[in-house]
Amino acid sequence: MARWPSENGSCRCCSRITSPMSKREPDPVLVVGDLMLDEAWFGRRERVCPDASAPVFRVQRRESTLGGAARVAQVLAELDVPVQVVGVIGDDPAGEELLGQLQQRGIGVDGVVVDVLRPTTVKRSHFEGIHARANTKVFRVDLESRDELSFELRAKLNHEITQVRDTASLVVVSDYGKGVVDESLVLACQGAAEVLVDPSRHASAERYAGADLISPNRDEAIHLTGQSASDPVRLAKTVSECTGVVRTVVTLDVEGAVLAGPEGVSSFPTEPVNVTDAAGAGDAFIAAIAAERRRGGSWEQCVRAANAIAARHISQPTSGVLVELKPDRCDRVASRTSLAEDVANWKTLGRRVVLTNGCFDLLHAGHISLLAEAARLGDVLVVGLNTDDSVRRLKGSDRPVQHWEDRSSLLAALACVDVVVPLSESTAHELIREVRPDVYVKGGDYQREDLAEIELLDELQIPVHLATLIPGASTTCLAQRLRDQA
User: Which helix (DSSP H) or strand (DSSP E) does residue 373 occupy?
Assistant: First the structure.
């Protein structure tokens, strides 16, 4: 990181990232705009704060990935497109982390400017549980500044753009309304390369004048035009008229997209997908248009490719995630006594509790599949793990292969498992009474009527789920193969 010296009139409050080992690729896509870090904090609301009527959220795990213009650059890099970014980060750990993730993906960061007077933009989502499941987001905290950049910093940023603009194949402007993108920046982007814009819903219509394509979603298009969304074709045409951008593609969620420009009007339906994570769909869409355009595709081909890539993006878990495990495994290995208090708190908070149990001696693919399937049935997965003595009673004197401490450590390390408790009994009757789960899960190698606990489960009206069986995946088979190979 090289500081701008004050002797030459540069601003003391900003510096420019320099990467002596980086080499600029020919004809890169230049991505300009709001660089952001998306964080996911996983934990539990375990009790109510004693001095206020508010839940206490205990963090257990943290993940982070790129957001905003940084996510656009990431998607382009994943599509094997050379990328340079220009934007602003703060002089803080989040900025260092964001910069590191960009560099890990081979993205050029020479145009990133550090502003010591503003924080790196961070979107921090808090999730109930230890991994993301549908409808588990509790709240989000935004760490950001929306203030306009200083005159000196604006000049530095626009200077960085002009250094790359004329050698770039395309320029993508990603505007999230954080004070980085304004009319002067969009003007600085305009040169030999085409300029594509993903607009902010808070921007004035004239901000993007002169760009070659703008890609608002339906709500953003309504804001830019003041028009209703009853006619998507008319909406797309009006966006171009209001903004002074040559052509407009309006994304319409499940209805696909509409492209309007000098070439005419085209509609692009989209195939329905199961949405895993809708965050960043617009980023993936504009990145895919840029990638296809760089390869020589027509605008129609670009939108068609973008539809497919955005659908794939939202149907898969977010990539490029860094994981930090906050507590050690002891936070997930509990006694039966402490479990009772935890269960009471979960149920007070309306959490859906799933229970399964077993020996889990030599952890294999069948176990992982069962646990992952069980976790998807609720918010908290409790695993009753047979003690060494109970395993010997059930499986014979040569078992378990691994002691309880080792087996519980392995289970506690799995993201899909919330709590591991000892099960000293030969059956799960007492554990079921203690937990009163919303659903009880066993492997598909069992028949419902053969479960030792079935009468109790029926009496308590607890549903039973038999997990999908993976043929040949069993501890007995695995142990035998190991003995045969010894």
Answer: helix 365-375
**17 burial via Cβ count (<10 Å: 0-12, 13-18, 19+):** buried
Which of 155-159, 230-234, 273-277 is predicted with the least confidence, judged by mean pLDDT?
273-277
- pLDDT number for residue 15: 62
323 lies in some domain: no
Q: Find the mean pLDDT for residues 6-20.
A: 46
Does 269 lie in the same domain as 408? no
Residue 176: is it exposed, middle or buried by C-beta count within 10 angstroms (0-12/13-18/19+)? buried
Q: Do residues 357 and 431 lie in contact, with contact meaning Cβ atoms separated by under 8 Å?
A: yes
| 324 part of a folded domain | no
The pLDDT score that the predictor gives to residue 106 is: 94
Q: What CATH number has the domain bearing residue 195?
A: 3.40.1190.20
Tell whether 307 and 361 lie within a shared domain: no
Distance CA 376, CA 129 (A): 12
Identify the active-site residue in 115, 212, 283, 342. 283
CA 182 to CA 175: how far, in whole Å? 9
Is residue 159 domain-shared with residue 200, that is, in the same domain? yes
Look at residue 97 in the predicted model and tell me its pLDDT: 95
Residue whose C-alpha is closest to residue 359's, from 415, 301, 404:
404
Alpha helices by DSSP H, listed for 255-321, are 281-294, 299-314
Q: Are residues 71 and 37 in the same domain?
A: yes
The model's confidence at residue 326, banded by pLDDT at 50, 70 and 90, is: very low
Q: How confident is the model at residue 22 (pLDDT cuts 50, 70, 90)?
A: very low
| Neighbouring residues of 420: CB distance < 8 A, sequence distance ≥ 6 | 332, 333, 334, 383, 385, 408, 411, 412
Indicate the number of domains in the chain.
Answer: 2
Residue 162 lies in a domain: yes
* Structure tokens that stand for 290 in this block: 């840029």
Do 208 and 341 fall into the same domain? no
Out of 108-112, 330-334, 336-340, least confident range: 330-334
Query: 174 and 251: one domain?
Result: yes
> What residues make up the domain containing 283?
2-314
Residue 283 designated active-site: yes
Where b means 16+ CB within 10 Å and e means fewer, 318-334 reads: beeeeeeeeeeeebbbb
Tens of pLDDT, residues 232-274 = 899 999 999 999 999 999 998 878 899 999 999 999 887 665 5
In terms of domains, do 368 and 309 share one?
no
Within-domain flag for 192: yes
Residue-level pLDDT at 274: 55
Does residue 306 share a domain with residue 162? yes
